[in-house]
């Protein structure tokens, strides 16, 4: 039954597609479920609701697999106007904390239960259902209404009012197939962007498009190409590396075979009137043409586009036309109202567009503040009064504030190239227009901000998962860069600082165009790194842009033969492209972990581009997570290096060459990152003609067992070289182990002394203290034990041990192993001593190395699961004399 107070399942819409998956009750299933939902909805073309669906799925699957501890079933259902996601677990006894008809979801800071809070906040509908075997939480997200294929017509205008084109208007025509590859590229496209048709045919349009995409905001290029009709601005990268701003109109078509494709018409952005959908003018009672209508009425009366950027762009264009200006601009205020950010402009250089920031209070007096209307008849008389117009050729300007409930939300301005064009009358008209449009702009801005925050939440959730999934320093650096490019920036560089006495080091560089990575790395390596300032937040770094400009200037002089060096053509294009790629705004964010600056994250934009404030705030959140992940990776690497160094010291540095004896050792320690465990081996010279060998197993695994390993191996060498025999060596080692007290461990040990003989044989004296018995393989293929069992070490104080003498003949093999070999298991089966003997009987005539390898292969093939115990194999063979 459905939970009271929550809307129950509604299936009024016809389900057109479904996708389902089940996830095991393990932590990694949460990330897998998020990826499943994201891929499914994007495949259905539901990009508008992907971020909300991912956040809700993440919380609900976490409740199922982490808190309820059961598997989770996720079902995605598609209808024409919504998407529904159902998450079910196998723990119906654990009720959702809802009582009566009201919600009682607890604190948002609680460890679980936040999924329902998010459902209530984000979903259009949601509910909970129980059955005897499962509990299900579902949510539905309605799709935004987006009209496509709309038709409109513009009025008939006098010739004098038609848009002016400086040269023949070129309309680039390109057609994109269903995979996104270019299949048509006309002559105007070649002239506009510099690429010949054979250079672009078959390549994805995304390789050339500079799409102004922000996480969680707007439509990506892949989605735009799938829409029936799309119109707007973006950029195309030319052959010189610069981005050509274009205005585009996309139309989705299909051929006679039903194959869909997209036709794209592109013109220069300042010629957008060629393609831009005309706005309807109000119809006047007098029947006069639309030009006779009040421009202010045209400005206010036309319908606003769906997205904020489109609304702002049309606003500045209408404001420019209304006051017959040469340029217009609209800026939005930051949250603290201390700066204004350029969001739309027309008639200004590209450097004055998109996210450049100027202070609200530019100077003293009412003319220096964006909070009051201002008219400047001649900017040359008051330089710097309007910083946005510096060096643009504009002489007169009128600016008015956009205010909502008395709060400054933006600024709208119109400028002209001649002086004295505007008076207080134009200021009043523009202010009245600004007052009428301010609320719509603020409403659209808040909607964009909300979408950005939702997208940012999804972005940070996935980024945290990725960063937490590795402790490798190089992989962490790569993840940091790949998460920022191209989502947050065009290029990224990561500087790291080893310690407080070290200078920052350029550790990783990434550009969205892989061909420019090497040039960018070379440029950054020639300039001083940014200062490691611990102050939080992004700060502007001008060194890369300045260095790029100097490099481009030197290259241009060499090309023209103006410098001292002869003209050089090689690498000129690469240098200019690199200069354009880093010529925009560059910011540095400190990477601070555990109150120490461990590096800097540098983000950059191409020429004339700026970062918006929301992106910088998102980058700051990411940098904090990345810094901690990077420091964790550093600490893990340092401790791993120390651990491995100490572990390697517990094993012999190398095996001595014994005349007339082949020796091979294979050692495997159990546990990730362990090089030494409780098993150990050694082979060392005692005196001339005599060698000691040992193989042992300390009770347990890990560092505690490894500590006893080091004690045993070094004690054996010292005692043997003092002239003690095998039993005396082991009795003294037994006493040393018992002296360790609580740190002592049981120890099984096979110790022997080897004397090679002139006739090719070898005499061995062996003591086997609780260890698996050594096996002797004769030339005829028979296998027998080479010693008798005796008590293990570390248990009793008084031991009575004895040694046994064995003579190996040429061709014989002595095999010594630890119990990690004989106790290899697969279910209830165990390899055992008999299984090892069977393997050894097949090794007749093999070298010592081949014998050890065959035993290892047999152990590995005995079971599918990785070995859970340490393992050591020592094989010694006396080679047969060569026949003459």
From TrEMBL:
Query: Could you tell me which residue ranges the PAS domain spans?
Result: 167-203
Pfam families annotated for this entry? GAF_2, GAF_3, HATPase_c_2, PAS, SpoIIE
Entry keyword Signal: no
Biological process according to GO: regulation of DNA-templated transcription
User: Molecular function (GO) terms listed?
Assistant: phosphatase activity
Listed InterPro entries: Bact_Sigma-Reg, GAF, GAF-like_dom_sf, HATPase_C_sf, HATPase_dom, PAS, PAS-like_dom_sf, PAS_fold
- Identify the keywords attached in UniProt to this record, alphabetized: Hydrolase
Name of the protein this chain belongs to: PAS domain S-box protein
Q: Which organism is it from?
A: Streptomyces lunaelactis
């Amino acid at each position: 039954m459905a939970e009271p107070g929550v809307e129950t399942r509604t299936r009024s819409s016809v389900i057109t597609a479904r996708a389902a998956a089940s996830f095991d009750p393990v932590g990694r299933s949460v990330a897998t479920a998020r990826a499943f939902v994201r891929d499914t909805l994007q495949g259905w073309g539901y990009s508008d609701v992907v971020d909300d669906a991912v956040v809700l799925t993440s919380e609900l699957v976490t409740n199922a697999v982490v808190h309820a501890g059961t598997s989770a079933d996720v079902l995605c259902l598609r209808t024409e106007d919504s998407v529904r996601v159902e998450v079910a677990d196998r723990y119906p006894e654990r009720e959702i904390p809802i009582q009566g008809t009201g919600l009682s979801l607890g604190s948002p800071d609680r460890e679980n239960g936040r999924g329902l809070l998010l459902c209530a906040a984000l979903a259009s509908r949601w509910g909970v259902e129980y059955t005897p075997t499962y509990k299900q939480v579902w949510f539905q997200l309605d799709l935004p209404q987006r009209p496509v294929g709309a038709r409109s017509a513009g009025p008939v205008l006098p010739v004098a009012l038609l848009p002016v084109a400086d040269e023949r208007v070129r309309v680039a025509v390109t057609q994109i197939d269903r995979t996104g590859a270019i299949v048509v590229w006309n002559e105007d496209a070649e002239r506009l962007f510099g690429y010949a048709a054979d250079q672009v045919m078959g390549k994805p349009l995304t390789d050339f498009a500079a799409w102004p995409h922000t996480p969680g905001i707007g439509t990506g290029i892949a989605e735009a190409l799938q829409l029936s009709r799309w119109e707007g601005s973006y950029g195309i990268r030319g052959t010189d590396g610069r981005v050509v701003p274009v205005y585009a109109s996309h139309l989705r078509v299909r051929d006679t075979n039903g194959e869909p494709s997209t036709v794209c018409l592109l013109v220069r952005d300042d010629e957008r009137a060629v393609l831009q959908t005309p706005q309807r003018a109000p119809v006047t009672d007098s029947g006069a043409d639309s030009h006779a209508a009040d421009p202010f009425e045209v400005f206010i009366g036309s319908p606003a586009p769906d997205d904020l950027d489109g609304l702002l762009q049309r606003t500045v264009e209408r404001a420019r036309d209304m006051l017959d200006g040469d340029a217009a601009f609209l800026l939005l205020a930051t949250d603290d109202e201390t700066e204004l950010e350029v969001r739309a402009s027309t008639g200004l250089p590209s450097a004055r567009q998109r996210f450049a920031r100027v202070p609200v209070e530019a100077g003293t007096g009412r003319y220096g503040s964006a909070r009051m209307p201002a008219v400047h008849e001649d900017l040359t008389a008051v330089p710097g009064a309007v910083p946005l117009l510096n060096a643009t050729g504009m002489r007169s300007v009128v600016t008015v504030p956009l205010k909502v409930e008395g709060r400054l939300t933006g600024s709208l301005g119109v400028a002209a190239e001649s002086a004295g064009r505007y008076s207080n009358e134009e200021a009043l008209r523009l202010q009245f227009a600004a007052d009428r449009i301010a609320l719509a702009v603020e409403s659209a801005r808040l909607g964009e901000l909300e979408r950005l925050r939702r997208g940012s939440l999804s972005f940070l959730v996935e980024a945290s998962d990725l960063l937490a999934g590795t402790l490798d320093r190089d992989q962490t650096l790569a993840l940091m860069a790949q998460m920022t490019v191209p989502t947050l920036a065009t290029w990224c560089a990561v500087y790291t600082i080893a310690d407080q006495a070290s200078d920052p080091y350029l550790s990783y560089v990434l550009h969205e165009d892989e061909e420019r990575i090497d040039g960018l790395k070379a440029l950054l390596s020639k300039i001083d790194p940014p200062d490691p300032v611990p102050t939080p937040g992004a700060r502007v770094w001008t060194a890369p842009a300045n260095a790029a400009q100097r490099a481009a200037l030197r290259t241009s002089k060499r090309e023209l033969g103006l410098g001292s060096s002869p003209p050089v053509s090689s690498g000129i294009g690469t240098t200019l492209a690199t200069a354009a790629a880093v010529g925009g705004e560059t910011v540095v964010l400190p990477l601070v972990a555990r109150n120490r600056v461990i590096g800097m994250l540098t983000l950059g934009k191409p020429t004339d581009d700026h970062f918006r404030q929301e992106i910088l705030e998102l980058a700051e959140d990411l940098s904090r997570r990345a810094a901690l992940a990077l420091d964790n990776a550093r600490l893990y690497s340092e401790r791993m290096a120390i651990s491995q160094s100490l572990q390697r010291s517990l094993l012999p540095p190398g095996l001595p060459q014994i005349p007339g004896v082949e020796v091979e050792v294979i050692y495997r320690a159990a546990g990730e990152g362990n090089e030494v465990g409780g098993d150990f081996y050694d082979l060392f010279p005692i005196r001339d003609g005599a060698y000691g060998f040992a193989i042992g197993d300390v009770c347990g695994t890990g560092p505690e067992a490894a500590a006893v390993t080091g004690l045993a191996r070094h004690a054996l060498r010292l005692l043997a070289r003092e002239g003690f025999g095998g039993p005396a060596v082991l009795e003294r080692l037994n006493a040393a182990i018992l002296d360790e007290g609580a740190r002592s461990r049981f120890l099984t040990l096979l110790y022997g002394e080897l004397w090679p003989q002139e006739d090719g044989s070898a005499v061995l004296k062996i003591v086997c203290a609780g260890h698996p018995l050594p096996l002797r393989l004769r030339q005829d293929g028979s296998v027998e034990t080479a010693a008798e069992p005796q008590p293990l070490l570390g248990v009793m104080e008084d031991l009575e041990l004895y040694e046994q003498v064995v003579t190996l003949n040429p061709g014989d093999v002595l095999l010594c192993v630890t119990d990690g070999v004989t106790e290899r298991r697969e279910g209830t089966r165990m390899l055992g001593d008999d299984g090892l003997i069977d393997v050894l009987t097949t090794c007749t005539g093999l070298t010592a190395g081949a014998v050890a390898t065959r035993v290892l292969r047999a152990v590995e093939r005995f079971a599918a699961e990785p070995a859970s115990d340490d393992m050591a194999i020592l094989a010694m063979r006396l080679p047969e004399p060569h026949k003459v």
